[in-house]
Specification:
Blueprint: H1 7-26, H2 33-46, H3 51-62, H4 69-80, H5 86-90, H6 136-153, H7 163-174, E1 182-190, E2 196-197, H8 199-206, E3 218-225, E4 228-233, H9 239-256, E5 259-263, E6 267-269, H10 271-275, H11 279-289, H12 299-309, E7 320-324, H13 333-346, E8 349-353, H14 367-372, E9 378-380, H15 385-397
Parallel strand pairs: 4-5, 4-7, 7-8, 8-9
Antiparallel strand pairs: 1-3, 2-3, 5-6
Length: 404
């Protein structure tokens, strides 16, 4: 095996550090290129001899918060116990095959005194549901089972999932790509393939060629992100779907800078709560600020308050508004129609997500749904992970789409 100080070993180490950092970044840990380089440099300096030493070197150089430790533990077990080929992730062949890890070697969080037989005390991983003492074969089977479950759950209705399946769905929802919708900006920028001639710049350039405009300079409009507003129904009839959509709203708030609201009998703004801290903190804050969770539904009242207090001030103006509700209304449906008419004048595009519409016998007969539907531009179900992918595609494509 080449020495860690040889150029070949340093190149291999750089590839491994980069691949490991990219895997952490893909699951939500904010690993920067500087941290990856620091991790590789630390391994070169410390010359770790065990997996435990590599673990702690990565933990102190790649992480920026204690909340990232459970995710780091899970990805570290996958990568450094042979479940994921880091070289395959980099796309470069290895100069020498990696040496297999000792089956008895344990993760650094399990470095307590080992005992054999029935007297050995139970040890659990920092990641819920993982046993750090399991052998390689059982953990490989668990990973394959998880992948199979992910494919099976992608098309299942959220209301039919158990608590364990909803926990797995949370991971699937967090991996959905959130691409911000765009709009044409008012400003013009110089561009080689612009559609407008910049006369002043072209004439100034012509001074260099004796007044002959040989080089023509063009401009075109810039692209700006369009605001996305999500309003979710958390009443009793929507309770099986509310938790999943909170995960989606949290991702949209953090990735796209979206605005998030929930309503049952009244409207509650949750943008600040969903943007701060980890998911557990965010959902605890949601529970504190939403006393009407799983209560009745007053869609018209909630939308009217949104327009009066937030929409007319600019949040809804020119935005893509996504409303998640089954349309059940205990108030006057006429109020829903009037609020949707006002919202249609402000918003760029309105998307209504009704998980109940996935049923074959569905008809928009609910009072609130029937009153709102004439003012909706895109109507989707959003009842599963696959349907959520359709929703994200609709949001992205609605950036430049005009109201029908």
């Amino acid at each position: 095996m080449p020495s860690p100080t040889t150029p070949a070993a340093q190149a291999d180490l750089a590839d491994v550090a980069a691949a490991f950092g990219h895997r952490l970044h893909a699951v939500g840990v904010p690993v920067t290129p500087e941290r990856m380089a620091r991790f590789a440099e630390g391994v070169l300096i410390a010359h770790p001899q065990t997996v435990a030493e590599v673990y702690w070197l990565g933990r102190v150089t790649l992480l920026s918060g204690y909340a990232q430790v459970p995710i780091y533990d899970h990805i570290f077990d996958e990568c450094f116990r042979g479940y994921v080929d880091l070289v395959e992730a980099t796309g470069t062949p290895p100069s020498a095959p990696p040496s297999p890890l000792d089956a008895g070697e344990r993760a650094p969080r399990d470095t307590g005194t080992q005992q054999s037989g029935a007297s050995q005390s139970p040890i659990t991983s920092a990641t819920p549901g993982l046993d750090a003492r399991g052998d390689v074969e059982s953990e490989e089977m668990s990973l394959l089972a998880a992948a199979s479950s992910s494919e099976r759950l992608a098309a299942r209705d959220f209301s039919e999932c158990s608590a364990e399946e909803l926990a797995l769905l949370r991971r699937l929802v967090e991996k959905l790509p959130l691409i911000p919708p765009s709009r044409r900006g008012r400003r013009l920028r110089r561009h080689a393939r612009g559609d407008r001639l910049d006369v002043r710049a072209t004439l100034r350039r012509a001074y260099r060629t004796g007044g002959d405009p040989v080089h023509r300079i063009h401009r075109r409009h810039t692209e700006r992100p369009r605001r996305v507003v999500l309003i979710a129904d958390v009443s009793g009839s929507m309770e099986p779907y509310a938790r999943v959509y909170l995960h989606l709203m949290r991702g949209a708030v953090r990735a796209l800078g979206s605005e998030a609201f929930v309503f049952a009998t009244r409207l509650t703004r949750l943008t600040r709560q969903l943007a701060a801290g980890g998911p557990d903190y965010a959902y605890a804050k949601v529970a504190e600020t939403t006393p009407d969770w799983a209560g009745g539904t007053r869609i018209g009242t909630a939308l009217t308050r949104f327009l009066d207090e937030h929409g007319r001030r600019g949040i809804a103006r020119g935005a893509i508004v996504v409303i998640v509700s089954d349309g059940w209304e205990i108030g006057d449906p006429h109020e829903v129609g009037e609020a949707m008419r006002r919202l249609g004048r402000l918003a760029h595009h309105i998307i209504w997500v009704n998980p109940r519409s996935a049923a074959a016998e569905f008809q928009p007969l609910a009072g609130g749904m029937a009153a709102a539907l004439p003012h909706v531009d895109t109507f989707l179900s959003g009842h599963s992970v696959q349907a959520l992918e359709e929703l994200l595609t609709a949001i992205r494509e609605a950036g430049e789409r005009r109201r029908g």
